[in-house]
Design a protein that fits this description.
alpha/beta, about 170 residues, about 25% strand, two-stranded antiparallel sheet, single chain, 9 strands
């Protein structure tokens, strides 16, 4: 069986310059996030949305130390939102451990095969909800919510939950 690698893309992020205090554009790559590390990546339809803000992100934040105990180096949340929105959402969620990755143009999501239309909610193109374990850029395990299709009336949540991913990690 051939191992699938994460797409090779450059992200557009904004980080605070420690010397000036100003926010500056940064251009981290897939290799920067995933190279030489074992990480969890979870993706969701959008920042500030109910399931994402009330369950998924807080759940990953709350279980962060449990993931670390299972050999995970970092936990990333990726969404088809721009850097400004993702940074504001991370601040609103008071994230200390989970790192956000903006995929504003949806390039990473599209190359993962997870891009879908959410026109029924006027969201445009968004990510289908999923999580994955990535080891040095290679996808070890995917947790994809069922029923992926454009303009789905459903927004399932369970397979990609932090509890499910942790249960999988603890099974070894």
């Amino acid at each position: 069986m051939e191992t699938k690698r994460v797409p090779q893309v450059t992200f557009k992020t904004r980080s605070r310059n420690v010397d000036t205090g100003d926010f500056e554009w940064q251009h981290p790559t897939t290799a920067d996030y995933f190279g030489g590390k074992k990480v969890i990546v979870f993706s969701l339809p959008g920042a500030f949305t109910p399931t994402c803000s009330n369950f998924q992100v807080p759940g990953y934040e709350a279980l962060y130390e449990d993931f670390k105990a299972e050999g995970i180096d970092n936990v990333y949340c990726i969404s088809c939102n721009d850097a400004f929105v993702m940074n504001a959402w991370a601040a609103d969620q008071k994230l200390e451990n989970v790192k956000v990755i903006p995929d504003g143009n949806g390039q990473f999501t599209q190359e993962m095969g997870m891009l879908c239309q959410k026109r029924d909610k006027c969201f445009g193109e968004r990510s289908w909800r999923y999580a994955m374990i990535v080891n040095d850029g290679e996808i070890e395990q995917m947790f994809v919510e069922p029923g992926k299709k454009d303009d789905s009336a459903e927004d399932p949540y369970g397979m990609s939950s932090p509890e499910n991913v942790l249960k999988y990690l603890q099974s070894f």
